[in-house]
Each structure stands twice: as structure tokens, then as C-alpha cells.
Amino acid sequence: GENVEQHPSTLSVQEGDSAVIKCTYSDSASNYFPWYKQELGKGPQLIIDIRSNVGEKKDQRIAVTLNKTAKHFSLHITETQPEDSAVYFCAASSWSYQLTFGKGTKLSVIP
Amino acid sequence: NAGVTQTPKFQVLKTGQSMTLQCAQDMNHNSMYWYRQDPGMGLRLIYYSASEGTTDKGEVPNGYNVSRLNKREFSLRLESAAPSQTSVYFCASSDEIGGGVWELFFGEGSRLTVL
Q1: Taking CA atoms, what residue in A is nearest to B32?
Q2: How confident is the model at residue B91 (pLDDT cuts 50, 70, 90)?
Q3: How far does the CA of residue A30 sit from the closest CA of chain B (Å)?
Q4: B17-45, pLDDT tens digit by residue?
Q5: What is the pLDDT of residues A14-42, one digit of tens each?
Q6: Chain B within 8 Å of A93 (Cβ-Cβ)?
Q7: Which of A82, A106, B47, B67 is the most buried (most CB within 10 A)?
Q8: What is the 3-state secondary structure (H, E, C) of B44-106?
Q9: In chain A, what residues touch B106 (CB-CB under 8 Å)?
């Protein structure tokens, strides 16, 4: 089955700096890569996703990149703000309703 | 717009007790899931239901049972709770939004402590 590795497990950045979270996946058939944000005491919520036929996708201050050859994808957050502090999960799936999640990254943005 | 609703939000059990976590969604989704979240372990799938009338085991099904009561409701039962089942449980639902893409919608979680 699919295996998703996520790094780092914790990340601290100064407000205004950029943050990058990286994930690798094992199943070359995976074709959908979402990112979820979990705020304290809440359930995870989809913030951005990318499909295997796209190399990069942006939505305001967040962007995802995908390298299918290397089987890795990354989340980039620019101009970080305190409200970006949360746990972020990457995930992967292949034409399926089942997502395999990474173990999560706790991002802390220091004012 | 409630989305995915889980009850209870908090529960304390003694070892050996049983309980059921309830989940309901109002988005007319076909698929529903139960995950557990433990520190450093991410989200692990316990059971899922691809559609009404079907259920399948996920990554960590031991010690749990599920019931897909109807299209809206999916319950998770612990028959004899163990301390290892202390966790935060999340219910989720999804439907295909095109091109083999399924977006998950999560509830707010149920924090279970087994003493």
C-alpha cells in the first residue's frame, strides 16, 4: 500500500518568513495530493491540493509543488502570519476514496 | 450548515467498558470514515464505508466495530475499551468531486480516555 513520509515534524518560523513542508510517497500510481490544516481542537480541513498532471498550484500565500519523478511534493507558505500556526498533513491517493496521510507537521509562527 | 457532527466530544471510560461514537453528515456523501489521531502518529484509518451497506477495515481495526446505519450515519463501537484506545477519534465523509479526486470533510473530533 501507499506510504507517505512527512518532514519536518515541527517547524518554527518568524512572522513574515516562509515555511516549507515536504512529503514523499511510495506508490507511483498516486495521482492526487491534498494538504490539510488542523487548528487546535478542530478537525483537519483541506487547504490546497494538486493532481498528478500539474507541477505547481498557488492560492494566495500558499503553494504546492509536485515532482512525480522523485515522488515528492511540498507545501510552501509565504509571509507567514500567527494564524498559520497549526498542524499540517499531507496525503496521497490513487483514483480512490482512500487517502494515506503523513504524520503531520506542527508549524509555529513566532510574532 | 452542520457538515459532519460527532458525539460525544469527550468521554472517559474504564478498562473493559463499552461505548459507541456517533457520526452524522448532512452533505449526502457516499463515503464515510473513522480515523484515530495519536501524538506523532498522524491520522490512521480504522474503518471506512464506501457506500451505504458496505464497511471495510482500515489500517488499525482491531478492537473496533462499525455500523453504517444509513447514508447519513456511521458509528464506531468499542466493545471492551483498553488504555491503548485512548485517542482522539475523527469521523469524516467524502464524495468524488471529479477526476478521481475525493475531498474529505472532518468532524471536530471525540476525545476518548480509557483508564
Answers
A1: A97
A2: very high
A3: 10
A4: 999 999 999 999 999 999 999 988 889 99
A5: 999 999 999 999 999 898 999 999 999 99
A6: yes
A7: B47
A8: EEEEEECCCCCCEECCCCCCEEEEECCCCEEEEEECCCCHHHCEEEEEEEEEEEECCEEEEEE
A9: 43-45
